[in-house]
Amino acid sequence: MQSSQFIKHIRNPHNIHKEDLFGLNNLCQEYPYCASLHKLRLKALKQAGSEKYNNELKMTAAISGNRTLLFEYITQNSISSHKNEFVKQIITKPKEILQLGKPLKFDKSEKHSFNEWLKLTHFKPIDRNDNLDEKTKLKPTQKQLKLLTLLRHLKTKNYQKRILFSNYLCT
């Protein structure tokens, strides 16, 4: 591959064909640390749909200084995407202009729904009376009583009492 062809491919990477891959491969073997060569070959492999693309992408990413630029270079579709195109802007007028900082206006018809909203946000206090029926009151079992006494006596510093209560609980 001649230098004029190489420069032409750098300027127009979308004009690279499968036939140019052989020349780019030879140049990449001859100059393995030339990042622009590897980028061109990677672009050509992507356009050709080659199976070697993924391996070459790893190699080119390792050589490349900026991977985000490499990603943009690979994913750009054509030079026509860089041309300045005038986009027709659709101007729409808002139906209502928002007036920030001013109080909201309510209609009389909205008053009822607003009152309902206030009723929903009003909470009733929870009645926490201890008026439980005797059926619902729980009586502690024998095991629970033993555990309570053990816990009370574990706080004491008398180790003999602890031993006595532990023997008592084991029975």
Structure description:
The chain has 8 helices and no strands. With 171 residues, the chain is mainly alpha-helical. Among the domains are: 3-79; 140-171. The protein starts with a helix and ends with a helix.
Share of helical residues = 55-70%
Secondary structure class reads: mainly alpha
Number of strands: 0
Tally the helices: 8
Radius of gyration: 41 Å
Largest sheet: none
In terms of quaternary structure, the protein is single chain
- Any idea what the shape is? elongated
| Average residue-wise pLDDT | 72
Poorly predicted ranges:
79-83
| C-alpha termini separation | 97 Å
* SSE arrangement, N to C: HHHHHHHH
| Strand portion | under 5%
Please sum up the structure shown:
With 171 residues, the protein is mainly alpha-helical.
Provide tags for this entry.
single chain; elongated; mainly alpha; 56% helix; 171 residues
Q: What does the secondary structure layout of this molecule look like, with pairings?
A:
Blueprint: H1 3-11, H2 18-30, H3 35-48, H4 53-63, H5 67-75, H6 108-121, H7 142-154, H8 159-170
